[in-house]
Amino acid sequence: MPSACKTASAPKIRTLDVQIPLLEANDRLAQRNRDDFRRRGLAALNLVSSPGAGKTALLERTLDEFGHQTKCAVIVGDLETDCDARRLRRPHAPVLQITTGTACHLEAAMIARGAQAMTLDGVRLLFIENVGNLVCPASFDLGENARVVLLSVTEGEDKPLKYPPIFKSADVVLLTKLDLAEILGFDRKAAVENIRRIAPQARLIQLSSRSGEGMSEWYAFLGSLMPRS
Amino acid sequence: MHEVGIMESTLALAVARARDQGASRIHRIVLRVGALSGIEPDALRFAFDAMTKDTPADGAVLDIDTVPARGRCPECDIEFKVASDFIFTCPRCGRVSGELSQGRELELSQIEIS
After folding, report:
1. ipTM of the complex in this document
2. Which residues, numbered 28 to 67 in chain A, qualify as contacts with chain B under a Cβ-Cβ cut-off of 8 Å?
3. Which residue in A190, B27, B40, B79 could disulfide with B112, CB within 3.0 to 4.6 Å?
4. Would you call B107 and A11 a contact, using CB atoms and an 8 Å cutoff?
5. Is B9 on the interface with A (CB under 8 A)?
6. pTM of the model
7. d(CA A141, CA A26)
8. In CATH, which superfamily holds the domain spanning A24-225?
9. With pLDDT > 70 as the criterion, what percentage of chain A qualifies?
10. What is the per-residue pLDDT across A123-137, written as a single tens digit (0 to 9) for each?
């Protein structure tokens, strides 16, 4: 409680209730991004997964198949290198690489700067490929319209149970690399059950960026996400 | 390990508030951290110990109040406690819900200053 006592001796210790959200600055910038994207007529997706779950491969195929009819752009985050940006670069799709140095996730401010640096004229879908990490990106809103969490069949059926925060925050869960499921003895039923228990709010799409299985469902979802113009 | 960055902003906020009040020392910092915030309390403590030296919060105590997760069942319109597995099974109808009524909190709730 603030003290009313006015003595010249050692200052009294006062307790101050502050209640300040610690991610307020990021959340405010994320909302600004969201408003900016809406004004530009585009929808943004935040793709999150462990390293190597197939985010880049999914985007490569998506740009090749879906990106011709619908203009797409990509912002891709990694600690180092522009390998992913080079894989994704297409004449019909602007791609921007963000290197985060040691940071384990993307933040809204990085996306705001990235979007400023790109030509987004005519772009309807902006894919944000987050740094491969199933923990930290959960806390950081980027201003996306949909958060897409990828789980590959090589990671094991119980991963959703091990990383609840990120799966709880998912709008969509993609079960990827389906073409490998059988050879790995992956228990698809158990994985689906785990996803449904931890993330019942999320839409589940099972696919393989290599064989093409399930990709039409992914494209249908992307179509539904685009703002009507 | 994004807890370092979060602790950095926590300390900046706490110091700014203390200065606003004409205080020069911070004795205690209280945080509220939700069980599903994605933030690890131990990592916050580690960052706190490493970052408070030679600041107005040098020697301060860090208290972390963990906010347990609570689910909400939209069918039954009730809120309920969630077990440690974070599967939100409604105790009334048994359906699994995706609605969270608390557990994502991450805030600086209180400081003690002089």
Report:
1. 0.88
2. none
3. B27
4. no
5. yes
6. 0.91
7. 7
8. P-loop containing nucleotide triphosphate hydrolases (3.40.50.300)
9. 95
10. 999 999 999 999 999
